[in-house]
Design brief:
Chain lengths: ~525, ~375
């Protein structure tokens, strides 16, 4: 791979800045992994961005597609990637070669914000690969892990053929969002849950079914021991047969398939790799607003209070305004995040929280409420550790904030065939926002039954919360699922308020509208 | 510079090619590509190359955003995303990827999909011509090629650098090192050795839709033949009762109202061929599109005569496409089929509507003429 080797070390003038900014960041109390900066020319930047930030991944065409998109939009001047940072210990961040000094400073400050977040937010503990026995620091060698995944896939490709691998990767990627982001924070397995025995003990023991005996002395002849033994076995087999797999609906569909689907060794590896990577990326999707907001909050603090000199401040403001620009078409997570942090800081500085504040309905008093507690900064650090986007919005979004930030809910109006502003009501805005963030915007899908209809078919269900699935996509996913499960698959969902079963048996799709089966 | 992603990129391109092949018939009948044609590249919208996942329908959910506006106001339409904006939030637009494909590749895909055979060149193939073109500058050369402006600019630059330039007394004296001369490069250009003569009936019965069909078909014919020959010329003839030669633009735009005398076009065609394209050196293709309603039986016979005596002896192929118009399809195609039964040089095809274009292309080019 020597042909890909690059000189990416920082030039001296950037190293000086790096040291300064790192010191500033620490002085504010940010606590980050060691961070390595590298300078890349723009096409390498695009390449690495196409690989999701990693220098080496498994071979797959979609990286080529992302690369094409990025390269085009860079060449046409539509977008530039200023920074990229990888959740790794040590963290790795990339700077774009040829950026102005103030841009580089801004990016470095921004990166330290991200790395602090990676290290301290609880959701990212799911990406720990262990703990360093000496320092107790989390081990996150994901660059190595991703490169290893690539090596494993390439070796399998040499043995079974790249086409097979690629087709199977495509299938697995269709299932990529069928994971349970909370799984890493739950009990590792059933073996650690409370034992079932105590519950079983309390149940009265069931009598074995016997034939009726009128006279006691006939008992031994009518119900001989052999017969009772046979009866017991029958009861036992009955009990095991009615046991359902999985016992409870399982959101980790990928994990379930990994354990239960009849897979070739190479298929198992591919599925396992894609599942691991999906779990690696999940926390970033769960904390997009918080993470970007946090980094923006800190680059703004560090640059305006410390790092930017007078000549740079206009350029900095210009760049920052670009990052925080809003448009009605898409919500800007940088903007929403940083404003909400500032809102929280302000509230906790002024003591606008707690029972007294909640119960105060005198508008004038609320507006001038200031207890001079100065708890803002402390609260912010707390928030960045213990929340994800959903809980962040759920707990801290206030009607004042929604009004101030001009947030609104929009929807599709079929009459005019366009998306329109619907309302600025706090309750609706909040509910919509939460819905949009729940499960990172993905539908919630569970495995229900691995022995559906007692024919080894797989039944999965969509937890319908008001919005239908896109049917053409859903059917395409079922095709992939069938290829992994090797038996017919069925999805239970709702379309326009009615329960619907989508089924794919390996040859054709069927859509059934109710539970009656033929 | 080689990148690690190149391999994945190549694979992506390959997949795109497959997609285009799959959807080729649709692209052809919709004429989508022609509007997007650049000089050498065609931009092709590729639907649904993304990986399917369980996801919500776009139109039920809506979302949250920020900005001005009252309930009922539309969200801004299709504005460019601002630099630096993140990806979160739900965007209203559908994502369609556009990929650039070279005409060369497109022709190959067409060939693969329609199983078109390679054409055997019957002319004196691949005659190349040398041409000198002035492309840049160099430091030595004859005085006749000296580049005055560049020379003095170089001198000015040197004087400023040396600090000898005085704005109040702006005298610039070039020295030997400052001299710049035009330099040329010899290029080898293939000489066109194939020509397509398009003839089209523009009488009143040929409507806009019929012309559109001809336009789409001729685009693909051009693409394929251009791929087969190094150089290709195209000539255009329109006719109603009289024929005249026009340029490409006029060819597709003109609408006349007169009657139809096909022989007029064939006469003109044979004149053009005779004067410009000796059959021994040129591969000559004649395409004629009409709705088939010729003026009279006599004229039809005259056409047959012209074809037999003048046009067919020198042409690789004569292709007649009969486009169905609102007034029905005429008699001419049957007359041709009757007179030239078994003659491989005459290819006829009936094009009912846009969906018929693909089959018609295959009928014309499938013989490898």
């Amino acid at each position: 791979m020597a042909q890909f080797a690059l000189k990416t070390a920082l030039p001296a003038y950037l190293r000086d800045e790096e040291r300064k900014i790192e010191a500033h960041a620490r002085s504010y109390g940010l606590d980050f992994f060691p961070t390595m900066f590298e300078v890349l020319p723009y096409d390498h930047m695009n390449e690495i961005a196409a690989y999701g930030g990693f220098p080496s991944r498994y071979p797959h065409w979609r990286f080529g597609m992302h690369f094409e998109e990025l390269r085009k939009s860079a060449e046409y001047g539509l977008s530039t990637i200023y920074e990229m940072v990888i959740n790794n210990n040590p963290a790795v961040a990339y700077l774009l070669e040829g950026n102005s000094m103030v841009d580089q400073k801004l990016v470095m400050a921004h990166v330290y914000g991200h790395v602090d977040f990676f290290k301290n937010n609880f959701a990212f503990s799911a990406t720990d690969l262990g703990k360093d026995p000496v320092t107790g620091e989390p081990i996150r060698k994901w660059i190595d892990a991703m490169a290893n995944h690539g090596a494993v896939m390439r070796r399998w490709a040499n043995r079974v053929g790249i086409e097979k691998i690629e087709a199977f990767v495509d299938d697995c990627l269709s299932l990529e969002n069928l994971i349970d982001p909370y799984r890493p924070h739950q009990r590792a397995s059933k073996s650690e849950s409370p034992l079932n025995e105590s519950a079983a003990y309390d149940k009265p023991g069931e009598e074995l079914p016997r034939l009726r005996v009128d006279r006691d002395y006939m008992e031994q002849y009518i119900n001989p021991n052999e017969f009772l033994e046979a009866q017991r076995r029958k009861v036992e087999t009955e009990a095991t047969r009615t046991k359902k797999t999985p016992e409870e609906a399982d959101r980790d569909v990928m994990g379930f398939l990994l354990e239960n689907a009849p897979l070739e060794p190479w298929e198992r590896d591919v599925l396992a790799i894609i599942r691991r990577e999906a779990y690696y990326f999940a926390p970033q999707a769960q904390t997009k607003i918080m993470n970007e907001g946090w980094a923006t909050y800190w680059h703004s603090k560090i640059l305006t209070e410390k790092a930017a000199d007078g000549s740079e401040i206009i350029d900095y403001a210009d760049r920052c305004a670009g990052v925080l620009a809003t448009s009605p078409e898409r919500l800007n997570p940088y903007k929403l995040g940083v404003e909400l942090y500032r809102h929280i800081e302000d509230r906790w500085n002024k003591g606008q929280f707690g029972k007294e504040w909640d119960e105060c309905d005198d508008l004038a008093a609320r507006q001038t409420w200031d207890r001079r507690l100065g708890l803002g900064r402390k609260k912010l650090f707390e928030v960045r550790s213990h929340y994800t986007d959903v809980t962040f919005i759920d707990e801290f979004l206030t009607p004042e904030f929604v009004a101030e930030q001009k947030l609104f809910a929009f929807g599709y109006n079929p009459k005019n065939d366009r998306f329109e502003v619907e309302t600025r009501k706090f309750a609706t805005v909040k509910q919509r926002l939460l819905f949009q963030l729940t499960n990172a915007g993905n539908p919630i899908i569970c495995v229900e039954d691995a022995n559906h209809k007692n024919r080894g078919e797989l039944l999965i269900s969509h937890d319908h919360q008001g919005i239908d699935l896109r049917q053409d996509y859903a059917q395409a996913v079922l095709v992939s699922l069938e290829r992994v499960w090797h038996r017919p698959v069925e999805l239970k969902t709702m379309v326009e308020g009615k329960p619907v079963f989508l089924r794919f048996d390996g040859n054709e799709h069927r859509v059934k509208n109710d539970q009656v089966r033929g | 510079m080689s990148l690690r992603v190149d391999q994945d990129h190549a694979r992506f391109k390959q997949i795109i090619r497959g997609k285009i092949r799959q959807n080729l018939r649709r692209y052809i009948s919709k004429g989508e590509l022609i509007g997007k044609q650049g000089k050498e590249l065609v931009s092709i919208p590729i639907p649904q190359i993304d990986i399917p996942r369980f996801r919500f329908t776009d139109k039920q959910g809506g979302g949250v955003s920020q900005g001005d506006g009252n309930p009922g106001d539309p969200l801004g339409q299709g504005g460019d995303p601002q630099p630096g904006q993140g990806e979160a939030g739900s965007s209203a637009g559908e994502h369609v990827l556009e990929v650039d494909v070279s005409l060369e590749d497109l022709a190959e895909i067409l060939g693969e999909e329609l199983e078109l055979p390679k054409i055997e060149d019957k002319g004196k193939s691949r005659i190349a011509k040398q041409r000198d073109r002035y492309v840049g500058l160099r430091k030595v050369g004859p005085n006749s090629l000296r580049h005055f402006r560049k020379t003095f600019r170089q001198a000015l630059r040197r004087q400023i650098a040396l600090g000898t330039y005085d704005p109040k007394h702006p005298v610039i004296v070039p020295v030997r090192d400052d001299l710049r001369f035009r330099s040329y490069r010899t290029e080898i250009e293939p000489v066109a050795n194939a020509v397509i003569l398009y003839m089209m009936d523009v009488s009143g019965s040929m409507g806009d839709e019929q012309k559109e069909i001809v336009r789409i078909e001729s685009f693909w014919i051009d693409t394929w033949l251009r791929h087969q020959y190094l150089g290709l010329e195209t000539r255009f003839i329109i006719h109603d009762a009289v024929a005249r030669e026009v340029d490409r633009e006029t060819f597709f735009r003109t609408r006349e109202s007169g009657g139809t005398m096909i022989s007029s076009a064939y006469k003109l065609a044979s004149e053009i061929v005779e004067q410009n394209y000796p059959a021994s050196e040129w591969n000559i293709y004649l395409f004629h599109f009409s709705d088939g309603d010729n003026w009279s039986v006599d004229d039809t016979l005259l056409c047959v005569q012209l074809l037999k005596d003048k046009l067919l002896p020198c042409a690789n192929a004569f292709c007649y496409g009969q486009v169905e118009s609102p007034y029905g399809s005429g008699q001419f195609i049957k007359d041709l089929d009757e007179h030239f039964k078994g003659d491989e040089r005459v290819l006829t095809s009936e094009i009912k509507d846009r969906d018929g274009i693909v089959d018609s292309i295959k009928e014309f080019l499938g013989k490898g003429k």
